[in-house]
Write a structure and sequence with these properties.
alpha/beta; Rossmann fold; 2 domains; 6-stranded parallel β-sheet; globular
């Protein structure tokens, strides 16, 4: 089996990290050789590729970029690709590849983060392209059900995300501040992630011995600018930009937090668990199914609940440490890489 993972960029997003995770892990599986193509942009995740020689960057400029499509087709033929695993929005160029080489087994992976607002999802092009899908992987049940009902491919399954957390990075990051309790939030600056809500709550805890540390991409838009303006007024909030998240960074914190308005199955929760952090998260997407009773779940946008959650951990180190350990053990059991890879390979075979 010769597998090609396709992703539009190698920036630090959930779908991007999963494409890299699959690529790296599958290259260690007997009988499989894995390849990776980034179509539009490279990014910080390129440094994490374990076998750079099996990677190709297309430099795609537009939706229908003939030069990029031909480059992809040549690569697939040269490497004798048998299966294509396209992540997120890369389904379009993946469909072009399938049309050029019909014998390919083509699987699309749906990482759609706004699963709380599926009624607003635009999918006319996706539905057309789904005629070329041999199978669909969805990160949660809600997406799996939506795909089965809305798209022209009924061979759909739910497979959980998994993590391969790097031990360190080329650029070491030391969390700033000398506060006793450090909260970390890893989320790109998108309205869906609700940073402004989080910052408003942290402002009400300014008298507490705690700090908040934000990692994520700023898209140079009004939303991101508003976040930075708030941070400048706060002495216990620090922003580090977009960085590859590794164990060394996470181990400096004690609480991982995510207050999104909507999610699929956020990879960052699994990273928090891998680093053995206590967790606070909103009840959206599959978050509650991931955390179960090992962390604190709050309703989206509820300031009182978030205040109480942060205080309960900050004021009780025994509870914090116990929750962190239970969350770590739960995720290791349910979202272990070996288990998820086995399920994925079995699905590849069923689609063949």
């Amino acid at each position: 089996m010769r597998l090609l993972q396709i992703i539009d960029s190698l920036e630090a997003g959930g779908a991007e990290r999963m494409a890299v995770n699959f690529y790296n892990y599958l290259n260690g599986v007997k009988g499989i050789r894995a390849f990776l193509v980034a179509t539009r942009k490279e990014g910080i995740l390129k440094k994490e590729l374990k076998i750079p020689s099996n990677y190709l960057y297309l430099g795609r400029k537009r939706a229908i970029d003939i030069k990029a499509i031909l480059k992809l087709v040549r690569f697939a033929k040269e490497k004798s690709i048998t299966h294509v695993h396209a992540h997120g929005s890369s389904y379009f160029i993946g469909s072009m590849l399938k049309l050029a080489i019909p014998k390919l087994v083509f699987i699309w992976h749906d990482h759609y983060g706004n699963s709380e607002f599926l009624n607003e999802r635009r999918y006319s092009v996706l539905k057309l392209c789904s005629n070329n899908f041999d199978g669909i992987i969805a990160v949660n049940k809600k997406l799996a059900d939506w795909n089965s009902k809305k798209l022209n491919c009924t061979n759909c399954t739910q497979i959980n995300n998994f993590v391969q957390l790097a031990e360190n990075a080329d650029e070491n990051v030391k969390l700033e501040g000398n506060q006793k309790v450090k909260l970390i939030c890893v989320a790109n600056f998108r309205p869906q992630k609700n940073h402004l809500f989080l910052l408003n709550v942290i402002a009400k805890l300014s008298d507490k011995d705690l700090s908040l540390h934000l990692f994520g991409k700023h898209f140079n838009d009004e939303y991101g600018n508003n976040i930075l303006e708030l941070i400048e007024k706060m002495t216990n909030v620090f922003y580090y930009g977009s960085k590859p998240i590794n164990r060394e960074i996470l181990n400096q914190a004690s609480i991982g937090i995510l207050v999104s308005k909507s999610e699929g199955l956020p990879l960052v929760l699994l990273e928090y668990a891998e680093a053995q952090l206590a967790v606070i998260c909103t009840d959206v997407g599959e978050c509650k199914a991931v955390i179960e009773d090992t962390g604190i779940i709050i309703n989206s946008g509820n300031e009182d609940e978030l205040l109480a959650a942060i205080n309960s951990y900050a004021e009780d180190s025994t509870k914090l440490n116990s929750s962190a350990l239970k969350f770590h053990e739960l995720v290791k059991r349910k979202f272990g890489a070996e288990k998820i890879i086995k399920q994925t390979i079995e699905f590849y075979k069923r689609c063949s």
